[in-house]
Design goal:
The protein is built from eight helices and no strands. Helix 6 packs parallel to helix 8. The protein is 73% helix and 0% strand. The chain has 148 residues and is mostly helical.
C-alpha cells in the first residue's frame, strides 16, 4: 500500500469540511456533510483499518502497543502508524471544530469572532478549543465548563 498517497488523501479529505465550517457554517450542505457522522465514519474507517494493519498485520514496527511509551513510539515508527495517528488527530480536531460552530451558533456568538478559533483548532487542536472557551467566557456567552 502506498502510505504516502493514503496520507495525502486523508490530509486533503478534511480541507473541504474546514472550508465549509469557516465560509458557510449555516449552509444545509455543511450540516449534511460536516455536522453528520460522515467524516468520523470515513476517517474512522481509515483509522481502524490502519490500526489493525499496524498492530496485527505486519504494517507496523515490532513491539507496537498501547501499554508503554516505547510501545506507543513503535506505533508511530512506521509510515502506516503515522497515517493512523494523523487520521486520529484530523477526525477529532474536525469534530471539535464542528462543535465550536454549533455551540457558538446556539450562544449567538458572531461567526467572524470564532474563525481564528477554528483556524487554530485545525492547526493546533487544543489551542483553538481553549481560545474558543476563553472567547465564550470573556464575552459573557458562557463559562469555562462546556455546558455553561
Amino acid at each position: 500500500m502506498n502510505t504516502e498517497l493514503l496520507f495525502s488523501a486523508v490530509n486533503l479529505s478534511v480541507m473541504p469540511a474546514w472550508a465549509l465550517l469557516i465560509l458557510a457554517p449555516h449552509w444545509r450542505g455543511t450540516k449534511a456533510i460536516v455536522h453528520s457522522m460522515l467524516y468520523p465514519l470515513l476517517l474512522g474507517g481509515v483509522y481502524i483499518a490502519g490500526l489493525i494493519g499496524t498492530m496485527f498485520m505486519g504494517m507496523g514496527a515490532e513491539g507496537a502497543n498501547f501499554t508503554t511509551i516505547a510501545g506507543v513510539r513503535q506505533i508511530f515508527a512506521s509510515d502506516m502508524g503515522v497515517v493512523v495517528g494523523w487520521a486520529h488527530y484530523l477526525v477529532f480536531d474536525l469534530f471539535v471544530g464542528a462543535w465550536i460552530v454549533r455551540d457558538s451558533t446556539r450562544r449567538g456568538i458572531n461567526h467572524l469572532a470564532i474563525v481564528p478559533c477554528l483556524l487554530f483548532t485545525f492547526m493546533l487542536g487544543p489551542i483553538g478549543l481553549l481560545m474558543y472557551v476563553a472567547l465564550r467566557k470573556f464575552t459573557g456567552k458562557g463559562g469555562w465548563a462546556l455546558d455553561d
